[in-house]
Amino acid sequence: MFGLANPDRFLRFTHPLMPVVWTLAVVLLAAGTWLAFTAPEDFRQGDTVRIMFVHVPAASVGLGIYLALGVSSFFALVFRHPLADAAARAAALPGAAFTALALVTGSLWGKPMWGAWWVWGDARLMSELVLLLFYIGYMALRASIDDETRAARAAAVLGLVGLVNLPIIKFSVDWWNTLHQPASLLRADGPSVTADILAPLLTSMAAWAVFFLAVWLTAIRTEIIRRRVLSIRARRAQEA
């Protein structure tokens, strides 16, 4: 990991991987979509269960993205890891998009199942909304400070603070009495969903995870190039 901290080495290492990761993402997304539409209806939820093949992957990957952002922020703030800040910055926008998609699809599922688009008292919903606000706050903080070094440090602190929210999201259904259903996959007694629903769900989760990886690597590479362009412009301005 520390060997890849060098931007040139990172670019060389990831260059041949990009078409592979993007191709794998497209294949998995196609397979997950096909399985989602061909899966049988749920005996309680009917066709509404198909929303879960988007909602669950979006929510779980959104949590994973913020973990990646927080860990990157830690290395950027404490160890001045050369690529850590770029990685954190590159994760923010995809993370916000995944989390927003989870909230929207959750509302679409909640209306027919709960009879309401949104329940303000539900701990899972509120903590997920807080996660989206952390993503937005991270991006807004970076954009509001002209000095990139100061912006990176301030955003890294906010990124670390936001990590406190992750276990709250994960265990909110266990700690409080909420409308949101408890865990269906990561259970001590095994998944509580049937195999015909589990297969498309796991495929969709893998697809969205690989899709994020492809987007993230592309965004990090783009951020490295952007910073190099800014550095060249600054150097030329000084010489002029």
From TrEMBL:
Belongs to the CcmC/CycZ/HelC family. GO terms for cellular component: plasma membrane. Residues 21-180 form the Cytochrome c assembly protein domain. InterPro entries: Cyt_c_assembly (IPR002541), Cyt_c_biogenesis_CcmC (IPR003557), Cyt_c_biogenesis_CcsA/CcmC (IPR045062). Required for the export of heme to the periplasm for the biogenesis of c-type cytochromes. One of its GO terms (molecular function) is heme transmembrane transporter activity. Coiled coil: none annotated. The chain crosses the membrane at residues 20-37, 57-79, 91-109, 129-145, 157-177, 197-219. It is a multi-pass membrane protein. This is Heme exporter protein C. The gene is ccmC. It comes from the Bacteria. It is found in: Cell inner membrane; Membrane. GO terms for biological process: cytochrome complex assembly. Keywords: Cell inner membrane, Cell membrane, Cytochrome c-type biogenesis, Membrane, Transmembrane, Transmembrane helix, Transport.
